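Please review this one:
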Amino acid sequence: MFKHFLPARGVWHLKYLITATFALFSFTYEAITPALATGPEVHLKGQFGPLHNWPIIPLAMMLMPDGRVFAYGTTPAGIQNAKLHYAIWDPSLGTGTNAFETLPNTTNTDIFCAGQALIPATGHALIVGGDALVNTKRNYANSDVNIFDPTTDTLIRQTQNMAYKRWYATAVTMPNGEHVILGGRNDRNFAGTSTIPATVETYSPIPEVRSVAGNWRSLSTANSDSAYGGLGGASWFYPRAWVNPQGTIFILGHNGPMYKLDISGTGTLTRYKTKTAVGRNNIPSVMFAPGRILAVRRDRVAVTVDINGTGEPIVAPAGLLAKDRQYGSATVLADGRVWVNGGSSTGNDLVGMALESELWDPNTGNWTTTASAATARLYHSASLLLPDGTVITGGGGAPGPLKQLNGEIFYPPYLFKTDGSGEFAPRPEIIDAPTTMITWDQEFSIEATASISKVTLIRVGAATHTFDHETRFFDLPVPLAGNIVTVRTPATANIAPPGFYMVFVWDASGVPSIARIIQIG
């Protein structure tokens, strides 16, 4: 049994291991809990905090192992050009200007609309591809590879590039710590002028694998325009892809077909016979449980896709959303429910925008309308679960009807007392949890200030363009409630890829602690 006691007992004290060096970070929940204008239904609908400023449009956000948020996308003026800046938000400092740091991008890579994932061994951010300027025109692609190091807050250009240029690619973390890069556009359609030559839209339909050592190989025999190229409703556009419980990659096509990608050798792509409802490339899908995906499709239809079996995926209806969510986001909350916010019925347009958010319960299959935001979240917005159980949602624009250099924090229903007072509920506090890397199918103990009735585990997120492909949720069985409980990590790396996870403990009233971030590998 793994057990380690921390000497410090603050509101949130987190130790984590990065390249064999311990660093201590202290976060205070009260620092990002303003006095909200709450009402008697906040324990049912949740509540948004006040609108706050961001130094850039945070169209891509990643939760780092130290609890901070790494974001990028635009200049401080909200203009497309992530070649110049990126930003760090420290939630422990609240939402004022002192909580944000804007840093210069010195890599000569425009990481606007790049692919992203965490590197499991180090907790660094892997950034692949992005934008390129060709003959003064944007929205072409590059093949650069960059890594953000949160211990130094530096973005570092790597010496080995990808073989293919990729704009809007997906990076999937594999069970062995490698990354598979899928999709992305190369050139764009441009009619040309008297001084600038025309270009035709091209794609990068051959996946690539980045080894743990940083070397690259192409999956040349898995070439596909329909799975992650120019067909299938722009399947190159951040392909919806996850590691499946068999250790290969499952791909949910925007237009309904589904695929399995085996990355051994030079790659094998198989198309399933089963299809699901037609979707769009601008509506969200998320893995809400091991091997189970909630996918929003056209006309407000939702489905679940179960990929736990070795045969065909199993598609089942998951209800009807109240609002169309083009360019909205889906976020798995600390209790395993899925919160959907933002979007519009008309695309990147304020007409038909959805300010109300919605909550889907996987236990009942029901959708519930929740709190309303102050402003629209459309194209180039993102939402991300934080270790205190709240969700940061921000961005939108570049292009868009609004330049959203701002964010809002959503406080889910589980943070409030259930008596209708609108007050925050007292929270249990974790006072002991693993501080060094643990492995799969391993018991570990947690101690809290209150009796623990439930333990949940959520992989830290990496969200952009309506898609958080990194997040995964696990409900860890608690054999016997108590202030100290012993639970077991997920069985294999196929269902819980290596990396960093938030551990929440819950009291008997259904209130979560602030999470500890642990490393599984």
